[in-house]
Amino acid sequence: MIVASTALRDLAILPWILLALLIMVDMATSLRRPGNLTVEAPPEIFVGETATLHLHLDRARANLNAKLDWPEGLSGRKEFEFNPGPDDTLETSVPFRAVRRGVWQLDHLWLFWDSRLKLLEFVPRLDLQAELRVVPNIRQVQSGEITTTVMSTLYGVKENRALGEGSEFHQLRDFVPGMDIKSIDWKRSARRRSLVAKELRAERNHHVIIALDNGYLMREEIGGLPKIDHAVTAALATAWAAAIGGDLVGYYSYDVRPRTFSAPAPGRNAFARLRNWTAELSYVSRETNHTLALTELNARTPKRSLIIVFTDFIDTTSAELLIENIGILTKRHLLIFVAIRDPELETLIETAPDDIDGAATLVAANQSINERRLVLERLARMGVTIVDAKPNTVTARLISTYLEIKAREMI
Q: Which InterPro entries match (predicted)?
């Protein structure tokens, strides 16, 4: 009986010994240490745009998969496959989208593959150490689209029509029939004993202040990006247009208190400083104090300026202090109020509800839109220029508004 029991125990151990041998053989034939990992990525990515991360791996086996943990500011596929490349290498291209400004680190890459006998799975970790910079979107500036628009508007045919209607002296010329009698310079005409007219043109070197509300309401996502990023894109495009148009550009940011102020400066250097500043503008979760912020802005800008305010509000009650302080600014300055409209909210009110919950949501959405309209109408009656547009059209609308103000000599 004892001999039989010992024999059965040895037979029971035998499968485990065979399994251990198979695992050792499987590991020996399947394990291969990957070689060097090379990363290629663009030096800068515009927020809201898509880029590609290129990975090259030396001395690697085929059918190799990988996993990557994306940081908060980047969005892409977490798992992907390497494909055979030249000279016993593997390569892959991983598209990703930049969703937050900042400098984002990709520290590690995990590889994983099954052994030949499917008994094991290998998951080595490789150091990636890649740094990706997500910066404000200046695609329209780089393409020359804004430059062409501004130059053709301010220095082309329109300026020729505006001669004699501006406020800045341009030159003297002989008076000819058909010219406005009010343009005659009587003193110089008396000296020359012939009629001489003053030719005027649109005034340059206006002060333009970009004021960005960086409170928690501007962190709301619209079209896949926070409102503050849509505002930054429109602000940079308008600042470039103002620099091309000969105006002086300054910037100001605030949330619970005033944060950064830069006095208006001429030329493209002002745009470069504005771009660097907006690239470092952090995302905050603090409520905006409009009273303190706009009072400080009014004190810092004694000269009449064009102030472009990017902000947001929830309802008429929360907008009361905002309206009151903007009314104080309008006594000295010309204001453009930029509000970014939510296209999903508009789509919601155009869709018939399916149930009671949908009907309640529809009523709430309608109320929100009506209160928003009431606030904007109150601001318009105070003399504020309103730019209320969807994210994809706010930049074009704002630049058109700026050029119209320039052409009408409103500053």
A: DUF58, vWFA_dom_sf
Confidence at residue 382, expressed as pLDDT on a 0 to 100 scale: 93
Give the 3-state secondary structure of residue 87. Answer: coil
Give the pLDDT score at 249. 93
**Alpha-carbon distance 302 to 177, whole Å?**
43
By C-alpha distance, which of 126, 59, 127 is closest to 90?
A: 59
The parts of the chain modelled with pLDDT lower than 70 are: 1-11, 19, 22-23, 25-35, 59-62, 114-122, 155-170, 178, 200-204
pLDDT at 170: 60
Here the tokens at position 46 are: 């515009």
- Phi-psi category of 205—alpha, beta or left, where left has phi over 0 and alpha has psi -120 to 50? left
Could you tell me the two tokens for 77?
């596929």
User: In the prediction, which pLDDT does 59 show?
Assistant: 66
Q: Using alpha carbons, select from 221, 218, 219, 216 the residue that is nearest to residue 345.
A: 221
CA–CA separation, 186 and 197 (whole Å): 8
Instruction: Answer for the pair 239, 270: CB distance below 8 angstroms, yes or no.
Output: yes
HSE-up (13 A, CA, CB side) for residue 98: 27
Q: Domains of the chain (ranges plus CATH)?
A: 30-135 (2.60.40.10), 139-156+204-407 (3.40.50.410), 168-201 (no CATH)
Residues 209 and 306 sit within 8 Å (Cβ to Cβ): yes
**What does the pLDDT read at residue 160?**
41
How far apart CA 352 and CA 209 sit, in angstroms, is 43
Q: Both tokens of residue 202?
A: 């649109």
Instruction: List the one residue out of 325, 254, 324, 253 whose CA is nearest residue 287.
Output: 254
Tokens of 272: 């470069």
Per this entry, what is the length of the chain? 411
Q: What is the pTM of this model?
A: 0.79
Q: Which residues pair with 105 in a beta bridge?
A: 131
Output DSSP code: residue 120: -
pLDDT of 161 reads 42
Q: Is residue 216 a contact partner of residue 377, using CB atoms and an 8 Å limit?
A: no
- Bridge-partner residues for 110, per DSSP? 67, 125
Question: Alpha-carbon distance 56 to 39, whole Å?
Answer: 7
- From the list 281, 312, 313, 308, the residue with the least C-alpha distance to 297 is 308
pLDDT recorded at residue 213: 94
How far, in Å, CA of 374 to CA of 383, rounded? Answer: 15
